[in-house]
Structures
1.
Amino acid sequence: MTTEAADSAEAVGIIAPAADPGFLQRHGGTIEYVLIPGAALVAALAVFGIFVMLSGKDPLDLYFYMYYGAFGTWFSWQNTLTRAAPLILTALCTALPAQLGMVIIGGEGALLIGALTATSAALALQGLPPLVIQIAMVCAGVIGGGLWIMLAGALRQYRGVNETISSLLLVYIALAILNHLVEGAMRDPASLNKPSTREIGAANMIGTIPGTDVHWGLVFGVIAAIAAYILIYHTVFGFAARIAGGNIRAAKIVGLGVSKLILTICFLAGGAAGLAGMVEVAAVQGRTNANLAAGYGFTGILVAFLARQNPLAIIPVAILLGGISASGGLLQRRLGLPDASVLVLQGIIFVFVLASDALYGRIGFLKGKS
Amino acid sequence: MADGSIGLWTVPLAVLGGAIRVSTPFLFVSLGECITERSGRINLGLEGTLVMGAMSAYGISYLTGSPWLGVLAAGITGALLGALHAGICSLPRVNDVAVGIALMLFGTGLAFYLGKPLIEPTAPRLPAIDFGWWSDIPQVRAALRVNVLFLIGVALAPILYWAFRTTRWGLLIRTAGESSDAARAMGHSVLLIRLRATMVGGFLAGIGGSFLSLFYPGSWNEGLSSGQGITAVALVIFARWDPLLCLWTSLAFGGAAALGPALQSVGVTSGYHLFNAAPYILTLAIMIITCSPKRTLTGAPAELSITR
């Protein structure tokens, strides 16, 4: 895939065709990857506008408040970026296995397990310097989430269990484990109404990026996405993974260790989602409780599909969807829409994005003369 | 124990009652999914269909006062969602698994959106038939209060088994599922067969949802179904696409799902959440035992993308 940063490709696409007649033939593919999901997004927004109009609200108000709540002010930008951080990481949980042709939708489960293991590490190491605790939390979160999704990968590889279903079942099991521990062994006796673990301590929180209210989780996410991009497109390992994803028999014939590929990729994928759980604990909640099951794992699936499983494209898409969920509060307050309206919009976007898959290679002016 | 007369017998009784009561949504979703998958397509969106069915059944039952109209509305809603799934899947190069995931999120989101005003009011519920009239023990009577939908589902399983084997429609669905080329050669539109199969599957899944909101647990809230739809989809794989096996496994899953509340009722509360996860753990365990990387599953429709 010829991949450039999505934004620059769009900018070039607008200016260059007049000067260079061969441009469309060479970059048609890249333009498609921006144009088609973009069109799907616009169509989804239009349908959502009609939907909202049917419940008696003005769609223009809707679009205004969505923009205002997502990107209108510095405050809403910070809210958006804060929500984008876990979305980048959970989207990687779907996008990395997708390189191998696997559909993993259990990022929510890995997030919860990562939050649990990270919290356990922090509580076990209380008294050590904050930096040590934070590093231990990152490691614990990545390992916990990584092993969780690696389980789905191993079941697929060694037992032929469908990874889509098993990873989703693991979400419910992870939630049960979390509730069990939070209401039992790990419960803070002081948390009466909302059973929670003890707090990891204010000193051990990872804090915000200087000058903003956005926590460092965003930086974790961006670094993870760039690292995933380099891994997939610029290393031998990633090349092998893409071969195995394209044709598993060819990969076996040339002697690639498919089992190792699957387990490693699944570990990294789950590790990313586990890191999201760690970030939510260490930057937002300060403890583990049922609040963590906020659906970031499920929105991450949509982010990955909208970004066409490209780790780099995940960053802007996560910001976009983070913005949509950030505007949910404003839609609730100003327009009186239920909080589930964000879920409806996400569902409509997902449907349109998948339906738009049929358009690739069919847009006349991008096909060239042949 | 509060009920000194039967003591710990409460647990197996509640599991039996659960097998009858809790299994109904599993049964309807799995039978519906069985039809869809036999036609060569998988609809993972039935989780969303289940929740939408539950919401629309509750809403219609509340508005009209007739729970049976609610059941019908749930079925129609499910069929529409099935048509949406099939419609998108008919487009070239669209992956049915991904569309299912999308519709799962869409269905639950839409149900939460439209169902917001339904959390407070109480809608008329479906009636139950009392098969436990002969007993004096309240637990036995409670366990044997059976809903008509359960009986319909139980009857539906052998009918489907028979229909798949002997009727024209059953044969067409199986042909589309085993070899779309063969169906096309016979002059049938595979897309149309799959559209109908997915719509019927959605219809049944919607009815399964109506059971959730109109009988057991018998109210509408956002935590009504947590993964029962997807468990039922996995159950079809375990049941080898056989409607009769779907019936037995649904009963087993209903019993497993009733274990947590049953143990809680006799005072075992420590592992409550873990016991509630029993159906998911059971599903996973069963899939681990029965699947194999070396061979495709016996009975799997050849066109099904999920068993490749």
2.
Amino acid sequence: MSETITVPTMAEYMAQGKKPEVLFWVGCAGSFDDRAKKITKAFVKLLHNAKVDFAVLGTEEGCTGDPAKRAGNEFLFQMQAMMNIEVLNGYEIKKVVTACPHCFNTIKNEYPGLGGNYEVMHHTQFLKSLMNEGRLKVEGGKFKGKRITFHDPCYLGRANNEYEAPRELLQKLEVELTEMKRCKSRGLCCGAGGAQMFKEPEPGKKDVNIERTDEALDTKPDVIAAGCPFCNTMLTDGVKNFNKEDDVAVMDVAEMIASAQDL
Amino acid sequence: MQYIPNILFFLALVAGIGYFTMNMRKVIGRIKLGQEVDASDHTKQRWSNVFRIALGQSKMVVRPIAGLLHIVVYVGFIIINIEVLEIIIDGLFGTHRVLSVLGPVYDFLIASFEILALLVLLGVIFFWTRRNIQKIKRFWAREMTSWPKNDANYILYFEMVLMVLFLTMNAADLALQNGVASGAYTSETASHYIQAGAYPISQFIAPLFEGMAEGTLIIIERSAWWLHILGILVFLNYLYFSKHLHIILAFPNVYYGKIKPKGQFKNLDSVTSEVKLMMNPSADPYAAPAEGAEAPAKFGASDVMDLSRTQLLNAYTCTECGRCTSECPANITGKKLSPRKIMMDTRDRLVEVGKNVEANGGEFKDDGKQLLDDYILREELWACTTCNACVEACPVSIDPMSIIMDMRQYLVMEQSAAPNELNVTMTNIENNSAPWPFNQMDRLNWKDEV
């Protein structure tokens, strides 16, 4: 990943009088977290590869307010939401794609009530549609035949009933898809949701991510696939806890597709 | 004199149904202590949920063993209640097996009641062993001691006794019918026991009664008949005190259940107007509130009156099965949070507040207690990952998570009592629009990083 990649901003597009096909909402994790930035870059490469005309908000993007809302600070949430909606509406955004299920859920479900109406897609849904339109090639490569288990992000799965898009992509990678005991609508949380990512857990027997990683490791996977930067962090920490980081990778679905194509 | 049984029956019926109605009005009154909800939308979807989830038990079978057993008991309960209709007519008018005029249909009905009664009996015994012998974990949690534990067993005993009485009644009846037919019993009372019904199960019990004196047999039949119907009336009135209210409330509860995607939390309108005011450059920050303006609404919930009527209905509907708790990541990993306990606490507090209001002429007299801290601990509230597993797991569309969220809102917006790390996170969001202390101007730096 040495070459720089072109990432146009909405401000640049606006200056040129252009409108992109889709706005890529990067999210805080995707912008600042070292691990999640890799997912962002992988997704951008896929967008370029599929010749998607996209732009980002860049410095005009702000936290959607999801952690504030789930922590109980409705005030802060709505402040963030309304600032973002003003920016999005100012650019007349119609379609948003994001690699973070929390941003996805918030913009899709909670912004409309505050005046922000957009077609919002999770990146796995968007990649699936690119694949179906023949714009994106998803095929085996280095993951062919590898054992993969997919961890459902709560805010993509239960919260929005999307279980199939990431799995369809993984199947196209010709992997051996294996399910954990608790999956899909009964999938266990990674432990990060509801603003837990930003605080120490309450006293208990163990941490949620350890419980979940244990279950994932039971499937003897080569890769634990994720679709959320926070799940990714939690599971990566979990794998380290079991000293398995040399054997088992935790990867975002987008990273896997990009890596399979040697992008 | 001959009308005494009819009169007694009438009085029992009036007393049983009357007391039940009175208590249900209390339940409704208490639910109305909550905030009004608008459920006039999505009528079609709501009815479809009632048919699918409540009537169709679609979420029960997610756990096949408990689910199928529950369907047996549920179907048995509903179908056998047709028999209660006949019992009521017989009781009021002194007839005997009045529906036997239906002929073969009646035979079919009685036969199916009998088979269901046996299945219910076996199902309930199996339920009892799961709870008391197998000791399934979700029935032995921290909140499942004393009354909740006993309540569950009382319900099972009740159902066992009712089914045994039903089969005994039929067996004694059959023995009498056979006796009359063979000419062994000739009294006028015995002649009431006309040939009616088919008895695939109690035919195996009837031989136990063979050779008994006619009078004894009639006493057995009458006792079983009376105890069965009185038992049903007592059971009906037990519901109000019990978690078993779900057999009625599950239906309205599913109707009022959440229609929107589970991830969509409600936006507080009271906050929206404040935020709009703040973001309006021409608003006068020093303007006095308009004459007669409403006092600002309380944010979030610290007691049951702050919750919505749907949430209070949820609390009365919960039958403490614990499917929510057994799927809760916080509970699984040993945290204090149990979504079932959130519902049980809400109901307990609602009953307490309801009694208070009823005793004080419709006004709540401050009792120095509230739902927060006196029932639900902050430690429980902060352990929630908002993963919606509890909401997904509930077979009757209860939403424990919404109560947790409303109480967090109270803690944060009314009391500024968030855990310190979350205060730091929120300050970051306020200052630099990210949960971490990174400058918003650096948001696009990733594109140039190697």
3.
Amino acid sequence: MAEKAGFDPQVFKKAVEEKTNARLKMWLEICAHCGLCADTCHFYLAADGDPKLIPAVKGKKVLEAFKKKDKIDEKWMEDFYWTVYGECTMCRRCTMFCPFGIDIATITSTGRGLCVSQGKVPKNLVKTIESYYEHGNQMEITEEDWVDTLQWMEEELQEELPGATIPIDKKGANVLYTVNAREPKFYPMDISQAAMVFYLAGEDWTMSTKGWDDTNLAMFAGDLKAAGYVSQLVRDAAEELEVKRVAITE
Amino acid sequence: MTLFAEYLREGRLKLDKSVFADERCTYQDPCNVSRNGGCGRDAREIIKYLCEDFKEMEPHGDYNFCCGGGGGAIPMAGAFRERRIRSGKVKAEQIRATGASICITPCHNCYDQIRDLNKEYELGIKVLSFKEMFEEALIVPEELKAKDEDEE
């Protein structure tokens, strides 16, 4: 699913048809353009009120994709790409102020899905998706490196707390602790700090060799098939280990 | 975070509040933890055990502003970085207005974004996760500590 040049109108039309649903249509048609969402958006405020950054205006581009699905071209797509990936973080603040509760985050996410149909996805997000499929995490960390990191952090921790451990694949534990893959990659101390907390609290916990990355950048990319796969990895680990709860980092 | 709040409430963890007594703390609600995840209250509960001087950003909780690093914006990097930093201006000004020296956040996207904002907007703050603060403030029972070899 690498970034590719060109625009395929047939594929686009098909993607639009697949993503059309009653809820989305209702949201897009009910918007009264009242403008209450404008100054709820940090993009709009930070740009001193640039009207292009009003959430309703950004959402309208998705409506345009649905209405003009036969007339979309590469140039339109380029502008659309920057809007859905670069001008909305899907934070849902605007929805809190919308009289109709229109969910711009879901609309943006749908827009990102349309970009996915054209392979037009920020290349660093594409890399993470490939990594989820290959290594089960976004940071290309192999199982060997992961287990090494856990053992290293356990040794570090034991210098202060000799009785503390980082259990791996412990069946039936109360808590399965999952992390953001940025932690083993850039902030490994996060793991020993969490282990310290669990040890002092007397928690029966474990980490897993598989399904341990609780991030889902596939979801943010708009690739829902991959997003489902990523979530399933954690669920499978929880079921395999028969844990009672899954905890995500902080 | 919900677990941390539980441990503190049940008395399973004890924190030494004096550790951060000289620092003013504020809290960045991550959109997907507070507004979309409903855990804003857990954070405030933890903060009661951890901080003497706590100042909320305005607005906060369910009405917080996104830090600008959400929705995959951090890993997108490249040409998206400039937009991310620019859109973080709102958050930077919110933090500055609290006069805080520590900004706590439990989310790695917020964490990395606010560290960038700290540099770009010269906020002069420390960005910390709860775990980092716990490491400093947790009261460890004597019998669990490593013993000095000389004493053995």
4.
Amino acid sequence: MTIAPSPTPARSLRRRILRRGPDPSDRDRAVLVLHDVTKQYPNGKVALRDVDLVIPEGDFVFLVGPSGAGKSTLIKLLIRDEVATRGDVVLDGQDLARLPRRQVPKMRRKIGIIFQDFKLLPTKTVWENVAFALEVTGHPRGQIRAAVDRVLAIVGLTAQAQQTPSQLSGGEQQRTAIARALVHDPRLIIADEPTGNLDPLISWEILQLLLRINELGVTVLMATHNADVVTALRKRVVALEEGRIIRDEVGGAYHRED
Amino acid sequence: MITFVVFSIRRAWQGFWRNAVMSLAATATMVLMLMLLAGFWIIQTGLLAGLEFTEQKVEVVAYLQPNVTESQVTALRGEVEAMPQVDAVVYVTRDDALVRFQESMQAQGREDLTQYLDSNPLYASLEVKLVDPAGIRVVGDALREDPAVRNVINIEDLVDRVLTVTNILRTAGTVLLIVVGVICLFIIVNTIRLAVFARAEEIEIMRLVGASDAFIRWPFVFEGAFVGFLGAVITLAVLAAAAEPLSGFMVEFFRVLPLQVGSLTRDLVALVMGAGVGLGVLGSWVSVRTYLIR
């Protein structure tokens, strides 16, 4: 199965050139900057060591690596579920370690997160699941209606709006989750194994959707084990192993090609 | 602010009905616990009233010398009434004593033996009601020292024993009520914790999409308050329905007690409502907190 990589907008292409190394001038343009980040858990396990990573706005990055390499820890640091033991995690110009607890929810609204297990509420319809993200962040109802309709159109679920997750296929459920992640107009979409539970055909469908969202200007960071997808798309690939970044290349494959 | 309150209440209402099984289980537990609490509270109130009634019966009777003069009696009476332990003093003359004796004999259907007597053999007495039965020794001793007093019936030891028993009962009742209260607290809080736990994923999603703590917490708190309110209303309805047959059964018992049904009902409604809503709110607050502190 082959799928042609979508044409890359000139804007992202320009940014891509700046990708390597934490050049201070990058910080302004970067959605995400990690500088010398180390994370040690209370039990002594070191999950990340001296990680440097800059993700410019509009980038599409694959985060790959074996289980236990530190991908989940990295994502937890980005949503400030955990705080780095050392180093800076700067999201959209804000240092997460210095962010007061009360500001964390506001920061999270700049991020849309997608999980392998979708995390949809089974008692709510597709429409309500997406609207939920806006309701619980205090948006007025009038605003919610328009925003939800818009993102459901983007992911192509307008017709399924009134169905509950149990009536949907896996791909449709993940598209609902993507719509929910998108409804806040996030700066960054973090997808944690979004295709882990889906068959190859549907996986490609989800990937195309993420690529399209990326084209709309949203930065995407996708952690995955799906080697076919990573190798075929030739996007930027960041590989983690034992808590270190061992490879960071544009147009990379899932495995090292020497 | 108003948007927030409306949002919280709407979400609480939705939350209650969308998780109907859990919510109704929590409400049922709430009802059972509140009934237990209300039952024990009624028993405790009855017990206290009974004890008070018993203690009110305690009085010091001082028999006076046969040759005592009216002015001596008045002086003694004034002296005794001035004591802080004394509530009231009733002077029973010899004639009064005779009448009482005759009446009590008649009431028991026995023959009036006094008709065979030439003169009244009874003594005049002062019946001293006490503010608190614990004061019996002081009052008794004071009366014994007065020359106008012939003798004072020694019931101090008996009263001491009665007081020991009533104090034990009072303490035991209070301790039992507190224990039942604590049991209710834990069971209700834990039931609500389970109901919240069943929705841990919902809370997690709220956190991930950037809901502030208040937006996560308050709908659950309102829902807890609603469970408590509903539980209290059901409990009170059941108690009201049961009150009629129960009071018919207990009327003889309660009539003699210094109880006011009006204030009893008011206190009971306040207790059940307060405990229901209070525990509901507390349970939700504590349960949601677990998910927020991270």
